[in-house]
Amino acid sequence: MGTWRFPMQNYILNGLSDTLYNVYSSATTAKALWESLEKKYKTEDAGLKRFIVGKFLDFKMVDSKTVMNQVQEFQMILHDLHAEGMKLSESFQVAAMIEKLPPLWKDFKNYLKHKRKEMGLEDLIVRLRIKEDNRLSEMKSGKLQIEAKANLMEQNENTSIKRKRVDYKAKKGRAKMIKGNCYNCGKPNHMAKDCRLPKKNQAHVSEG
Predict the structure, then answer these.
(1) Could you tell me if 178 and 190 are in contact, meaning their C-beta atoms sit under 8 angstroms apart?
(2) pLDDT tens profile 63-114
(3) Whole-angstrom Cα Rg for the chain
(4) CB 150: neighbour CB atoms within 10 A?
(5) Who's near 75: CB < 8 A, 6+ residues apart?
(6) Where are the domains positioned within the chain?
(7) C-alpha–C-alpha distance, residues 62 and 82, integer Å
(8) Measured between alpha carbons, how far is 34 from 28 in angstroms, rounded to an integer?
């Protein structure tokens, strides 16, 4: 038995990294070495499981990212749970994914929660993808409409400004063309033919 213990102990130690070898090389028997390693890795496994469970519980989708990207993140967490031996039923996974949808998906979330027919995980993911594609199309369409209205308003404003400039230049041009005072009334800025007062010749005729 003693001859078995020694080579077995060396076999285990040779499979360790240098750091772990230095820590566990003082073990007197293969059994003691194995128990020490088992305790270490069981403790680490328990810590890893708690960490993954924490990630699962804390995970919540946000509106600032695409839902499909976050679905992939959540699937990775589910995969890690399964890898650690924590199996979740498909119906539980579906319910959890629905519950973790972002705030702006509240109406669709309620719709999914009240569906009587049970859905599989793949079916849910397909529905989420279709819904997101539709939402993005609607948002893009709405954005284009807003941009079109803004462009139309800008064009109208520019047209109005140009008209005002043309009118102003025309008035200014007419004012420059009129030099001296009106021959009819003696006042500036208009010609005798545009004068509002009775023409001098007409006044003389009426007096005669």
Answers:
(1) yes
(2) 999 999 999 999 999 998 888 888 889 999 999 999 999 999 999 999 998 8
(3) 44
(4) 10
(5) none
(6) 2-134, 180-207
(7) 25
(8) 11
